[in-house]
Specification:
Number of strands: 19
Structural class: alpha+beta
Strand order of the largest sheet: 7-6-5-8-9-16-13-12-10-11
Number of helices: 19
Radius of gyration: 32 Å
Largest sheet: 10 strands, mixed
Shape: elongated
Strand content: 15-25%
Helix content: 40-55%
Distance between the termini: 16 Å
Length: 575
C-alpha cells in the first residue's frame, strides 16, 4: 500500500492505494481508502502538510499489514473435476527442502562470491544459480551432474541456465577452489565466531570408475579396499565440527606430505595463526609435531603405545600410577570392577627425539570391555576357521580373525613335514594387555589434562564429516575425468557439508544426521491448478525447528503463489 494525492483548484485529497498487475500484465493501482482533504486532516494531524503526509504513510503501513493478514487467513476455493484429465507434461511435484539450505547459503554470502567470479571472468550464465543447485541437490538427491540438473528442475525455483552451462561453471569453480574456500571462511564469521583455536586434520580417499591411472588418480590404499585408482583429500575442521579447508593430492602420495601445503594456506590466506593441531597417529609424525610447535601453534596427537620405546611402553602398560580424571585420586586400575564407568590417566615427560613433549595414557574400563567383546568374537571366528580347515594363507587386514591362528611345522615318522594351524593364545594375551588404553602426546606441558583429553576426543567429528560426504552425499565413486572439474565436484561436496553442519549446529543436538537429511528430502509440495502449493510432508518437532531458525513457514494447509514468492525471498534474506 502507498499514499497518493489528488489536487484540484481549491483542495488536495489524500488516499491509500494498492498496486497490482492487471489481466494484461500491466502494473496499475486502485484507491482502497480515502483519508480526507488536506484542510480536514490539518486540524487533527497538522500543523504542516509534512505532518499529514507522515501520518498518512503510517496509515498505509497499517493497511498493508491488515491486507497481508487477511490474505494469509483467506480461504482458497479450488474446483477439481473427476472427468477432466490432467494436461500433458504438467509439473505438479516440487521439492522444497532446499529452502532451508538456501537460508544458510545466503547467510554465508556465497552469492556475493559468485558475483566476484562473474565480474572477473565476464561470463553470461548464472553461476550462483548453478553452484547453489549443485549444493542443494548434493544434499537432497546426490547423483551425476546431468541428473542433478533434472533434480533442480523439480525445485520451486527452476534452473535459469542450460545443461552445458553447468560444465562451463565447473571449470571456473575448480580453478577458483582456493579463493572460494578462503572467502567462505571469512564470511562464516557473519554467522558467529569460529572455534578455530582448535583445528582437526585427517585424510581420506575417493575411488574412480576407471581401470588405469590418470593424472592425480593413482593406485593407492583405498579406504573402501577398492582396486580402482583413487584421489586423496586432506581436511581441516574447527572445534565445532565445521569444515575449514580441504585439498586434493595424488592417490599414491604419502598422506603426511599433504598437511604442510594446506596448513600454510590456512596460516596465510585464512589468517589463523594461533591454534592447537589435533590428529591421529598417522598424521602425527615427529616432523609434523615439530612444524606445529612453531609460532603460536601447539599439537595434541594420538600416540601408538605399541610403537613406544621399550621403557615407555612398559610404563604405559603398568597398572599402577593412574589417577581418576575427575578428581586426581590415585587408582590401581587392576582393582577396578568391569562395570566401572570412570576414566583414569597417568602422564610423564616424553622426548623421543629432540622435541620435549608430554605423554598422557588413559584407561577406560568401558572401552576395555568393548575391545574384549570384539576380540572374543574374532577368536570365535578364528576357531571356526580351524575347525573347518578353511584357513587362508595370506591375510593382511590387521583386524582379521586369522591373525590369531599360528602355524607350526611338524614331522611325523616316515613322512614329509606338514604345516599345522593352532589358536595362538600368546598373540591373544599380548593384545589383551592394551585393552582400554589410549595415549596422546602434546607439547602443552602445563595445560589441564581434562582439557587436553576433551580436545582429543573431538576427533570423531572429522570422521563423521568424511562419512557424511561419502555415504549421505555420495561423493564417490567419481565419474568426472577432467582434473579441474574433479576439484569442482569435491568443492560442491565440501560446501554442502559446511551448509549442512551450520544447519545442524542451529538445530542443536536434538536430531540425528539421518533424521535431518530424511526430513529435508521429504519437504515437498504439490502445485495446485497454478493457484499455489499444498505441503506433502508430515509436520513434526524438527520441521517446526527448521522453520523457527530460518524465519519462514511452509507448513500451512495451502500456500498461495504470492506467499511462496515471499518465502523464497526470506530464504535469501531479501524480505
Amino acid at each position: 500500500m502507498k499514499v497518493t494525492t489528488s489536487k484540484s483548484k481549491n483542495s488536495e485529497s489524500f488516499y491509500i492505494a494498492k498496486s497490482f498487475i492487471n489481466d494484461k500484465g500491466i502494473s496499475t493501482s486502485v484507491n482502497v481508502r480515502k483519508l480526507g482533504t488536506l484542510n480536514e486532516l490539518l486540524k487533527e494531524h497538522g500543523p504542516t502538510r509534512d505532518d499529514v503526509m507522515a501520518w498518512a504513510r503510517e496509515e498505509a503501513k497499517k493497511e498493508t499489514q491488515k491486507y497481508k493478514k487477511e490474505q494469509q487467513n483467506k480461504a482458497v476455493q479450488i474446483t477439481f473435476h473427476a472427468d477432466r484429465q490432467i494436461p500433458y507434461d504438467q509439473q505438479v511435484f516440487y521439492r522444497g527442502g532446499y529452502l532451508f539450505l538456501q537460508t544458510v547459503y545466503y547467510r554465508l554470502h556465497i552469492d556475493k562470491i559468485c558475483r566476484k567470479l562473474r565480474d572477473k571472468y565476464k561470463f553470461k550464465y548464472d553461476i550462483n544459480a548453478i553452484l547453489s543447485d549443485l549444493i542443494y541437490a548434493r544434499v537432497l538427491e546426490p547423483s551425476s551432474k546431468r541428473s542433478t540438473f533434472h533434480t533442480a528442475s523439480e525445485f520451486l525455483e527452476t534452473p535459469s541456465y542450460l545443461m552445458h552451462d553447468v560444465y562451463r561453471a565447473l571449470d571456473i569453480l575448480g580453478s577458483e577452489c582456493d579463493f572460494i574456500q578462503s572467502e567462505v571462511y571469512k564470511n562464516s564469521h557473519l554467522l558467529g565466531s569460529r572455534n578455530d583455536k582448535i583445528l582437526y586434520y585427517d585424510c581420506t580417499n575417493y575411488y574412480f570408475e576407471i581401470e588405469q591411472e590418470d593424472g592425480e588418480k593413482k593406485y593407492g590404499k583405498s579406504k573402501e579396499h577398492r582396486p580402482n585408482p583413487i584421489i586423496q583429500m586432506g581436511l581441516f575442521m574447527d572445534g565445532d565440527g565445521i569444515p575449514l579447508a580441504f585439498s586434493l593430492f595424488p592417490g599414491n602420495a604419502n598422506e603426511q606430505t599433504s598437511l604442510k601445503p594446506l596448513e600454510e594456506k590456512v596460516l596465510s590466506e585464512f589468517g589463523c595463526q594461533k591454534f592447537i593441531y589435533c590428529s591421529d597417529a598417522g598424521l602425527g609424525s615427529e616432523k609434523i609435531r615439530t612444524y606445529n610447535h612453531m609460532g603460536a601453534r601447539a599439537f595434541i596427537v594420538t600416540q601408538s603405545i605399541k610403537k613406544l620405546q621399550a621403557e615407555d611402553r612398559e610404563w604405559a602398560l603398568s597398572k599402577t600410577g593412574f589417577k581418576r580424571v575427575s578428581d586426581d585420586k590415585p587408582v590401581d586400575i587392576s582393582t577396578l570392577s568391569e562395570d566401572d564407568k570412570g576414566l583414569y590417566y597417568k602422564e610423564e615427560p616424553y622426548t623421543p627425539h629432540k622435541l620435549h613433549q608430554r605423554l598422557i595414557v588413559t584407561y577406560s574400563p568401558k572401552f576395555a570391555r568393548y575391545q574384549k567383546m570384539i576380540r572374543d568374537r574374532q577368536i570365535d571366528r578364528a576357531q571356526k576357521m580351524l575347525d573347518s580347515g578353511s584357513v587362508k594363507k595370506e591375510r593382511r587386514n590387521p583386524n582379521d580373525p586369522a591373525r590369531f591362528i599360528g602355524k607350526i611345522a611338524a614331522t611325523d615318522a616316515g613322512e614329509a613335514a606338514k604345516i599345522h594351524n593352532y589358536l595362538d593364545t600368546d598373540r591373544i594375551d599380548s593384545e589383551a594387555l592394551y585393552d582400554g588404553l589410549y595415549a596422546v602426546s602434546t607439547d602443552l606441558l602445563d595445560d589441564d589434562v581434562n582439557n587436553i583429553l576433551k580436545v582429543s576426543e573431538g576427533r570423531w567429528e572429522i570422521e563423521e564429516c568424511f562419512r557424511i560426504m561419502k555415504t549421505d552425499f555420495e561423493a564417490r565413486p567419481v565419474f568426472l575425468q577432467n582434473e579441474t572439474r574433479i576439484k569442482a565436484h569435491f568443492l560442491t561436496c565440501y560446501l554442502a557439508l559446511i551448509i549442512y553442519r551450520y544447519l545442524e549446529k542451529e538445530l542443536g543436538s536434538n536430531f540425528t544426521c539421518e533424521t535431518i537429511l530424511d526430513t529435508l528430502k521429504e519437504i515437498n509440495f504439490a502445485g495446485v491448478q497454478e493457484q499455489g502449493y499444498m505441503p506433502l510432508y508430515k509436520r513434526d518437532k524438527l520441521t517446526d525447528a527448521l522453520h523457527q531458525i530460518c524465519g519462514f513457514r511452509t507448513d500451512y494447509e495451502f500456500i498461495t503463489k504470492r506467499q511462496m514468492k515471499t518465502i523464497q525471498k526470506k530464504s535469501k534474506g531479501r524480505e
